[in-house]
Amino acid sequence: MEIGSTLRLGLATCRVNANLRQNSRMMPFFYDTHAHLGYPDFERELPAVIERAKAAGISKIISIGTDENSSRNALKMAEIYPDVFAAVGWHPSDAQDAPEDIRPLLRELATHPKVVALGETGLDYYRLPGKGNPAAAVIDDRYKAKQLSLFQQHLEVAAECGLNCVIHQRECFEDTFRVLAPFAGRVRGVFHCFANDAASMQRVLALGSLVSFTGILTFKNGQNIRDTLAQTPLDGFMLETDCPFLAPVPYRGKRCEPAYVKEISVTAAQVKGCSLEQLSQATCRTAEKFFRNLA
Ligand SMILES: [Zn+2]
Ligand SMILES: [Zn+2]
């Protein structure tokens, strides 16, 4: 009698568990692997932003630092919110304000258990202080040299600490690739907000690194990026918003937030010709392997 009721109870529990699994399968979850939650855009309503992400099935968010303050702030948010993680680093566009040797700071921040990667780091030739004017070439060269030095220091510390790097590159794919290449096998990079062609994507993957795609995927004029994604293997990319920038359609032009990974995922699944469940499994697994302590 007792054994029978235990059995019945056991079966009922099994059924409840199966139903729960069924329900969680109904809404595929995704991660926002690149968000700037520390931007003033979110200051007043961060709990609501995180709540909306959760409601949209975006179960983990990586907040990205761009200098010392924003990196420390990302860590603070990661301490408050269980589903928020942090990448710490110094953005190439802010290179001028960075110390010459950023390694002690990176080493210190990297010890935090919720740091999942270093970055964002990399190179950006889009906004040069001399605006590309030949008369200002010396200023631009000095600026580029500082970016290069900081990028190399991020990679060096990443190799030391067993972390990977979130890489920003704009109008300088070749230079960025050249700096990362010697670290292959020790550090992996994710070329975030990827907007280059399929041949470049294949070279990134050949290094053991990854690419990630933003809301630009959904833009009418984003066909070149959809073409690159179409050729990217399902286990070679991740999804991100880069919020508060780059809100996907139908929010284009408005402030972006992590919940909108949902819209990005719908377009990505269409481009890949796969189900949202398959996309969820592939991109989340890729992120869990790439980012330390995310799983
Ligand atoms: Zn970036
Ligand atoms: Zn960013």
In words, what does this structure look like?
This protein is an alpha/beta fold and 295 residues long. It contains ten helices and eight strands. The protein has helices spanning 2-26, 46-55, 68-80, 103-110, 137-161, 173-180, 198-206, 223-231, 261-272, 276-290; strands spanning 30-35, 58-64, 84-88, 115-124, 165-170, 189-191, 210-213, 237-239. An eight-stranded parallel sheet has the order 1-2-3-4-5-6-7-8. α2 (46-55) links the parallel β1 (30-35) and β2 (58-64). α4 (103-110) runs parallel beside α5 and α9 packs across α10 (276-290). The protein is globular and about 55 Å long. One zinc ion (ZN) is lined by residues 120, 168, 192-193.
Note the beta-strand portion: 5-15%
Q: In terms of structural class, how would the helical and strand content be classed?
A: alpha/beta
What is the mean predicted local confidence, pLDDT?
92
Overall 3D form = globular
- Give the beta-strand count: 8
| Cα radius of gyration in angstroms | 21 Å
Uncertain regions spanning at least 5 consecutive residues: 1-7, 9-23
Helix coverage percent of residues? 40-55%
Number of helices: 10
Oligomeric state of the chains present here: single chain
Distinct ligand kinds: zinc ion
**How are the strands of the biggest sheet laid out side by side?**
1-2-3-4-5-6-7-8
Largest sheet: 8 strands, parallel
Instruction: Please report the distance between the alpha carbons of the first and last residues.
Output: 43 Å
Give, in order, the helices and strands: HEHEHEHEHEHEHEHEHH
